[in-house]
């Protein structure tokens, strides 16, 4: 049941239907797993619902080196969504993941990302 709450939160944050939230979550977690070390991915996996854990399992310890644009391209392609939807989805997934795993664990994992990717985890200020 916890994974359903995760998808619901992503759907609300990204303003997308639940099915799209599920695709965006899976695509974002798979892409994040490629970008961080196997140890950090496993640490994150320890804190998420059982259904999401396989998305954070990595065959190697070494992270791939790619930046913001490639991260969003991979998510958009995997989730079969437009680039702007992918960006909103990545933000929503990372913000939801942050709340689920806790601040210290989340910051430790994201420390491996370049600043522009880490910035996706920050809430977007609302304009009045």
From TrEMBL:
Family matches, as Gene3D superfamilies: Uncharacterized conserved protein DUF2267
One Pfam assignment: DUF2267
InterPro entries to which the protein is assigned, alphabetical: DUF2267, DUF2267_sf
Protein name: Uncharacterized conserved protein, DUF2267 family
Organism of derivation: Micromonospora echinaurantiaca
């Amino acid at each position: 049941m916890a994974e359903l709450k995760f998808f619901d939160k992503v759907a609300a944050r990204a303003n997308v239907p639940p099915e799209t939230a599920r695709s965006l979550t899976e695509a974002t977690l798979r892409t994040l797993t490629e970008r961080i070390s196997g140890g950090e991915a496993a640490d994150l996996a320890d804190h998420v619902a059982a259904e999401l854990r396989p998305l954070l399992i990595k065959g190697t310890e070494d992270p791939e080196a790619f930046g913001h644009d490639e991260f969003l391209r991979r998510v958009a392609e995997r989730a079969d969504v437009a680039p702007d939807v992918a960006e909103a989805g990545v933000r929503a997934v990372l913000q939801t993941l942050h709340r689920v795993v806790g601040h210290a664990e989340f910051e430790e994992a994201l420390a491996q990302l370049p600043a522009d990717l880490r910035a996706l985890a920050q809430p977007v200020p609302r304009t009045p």
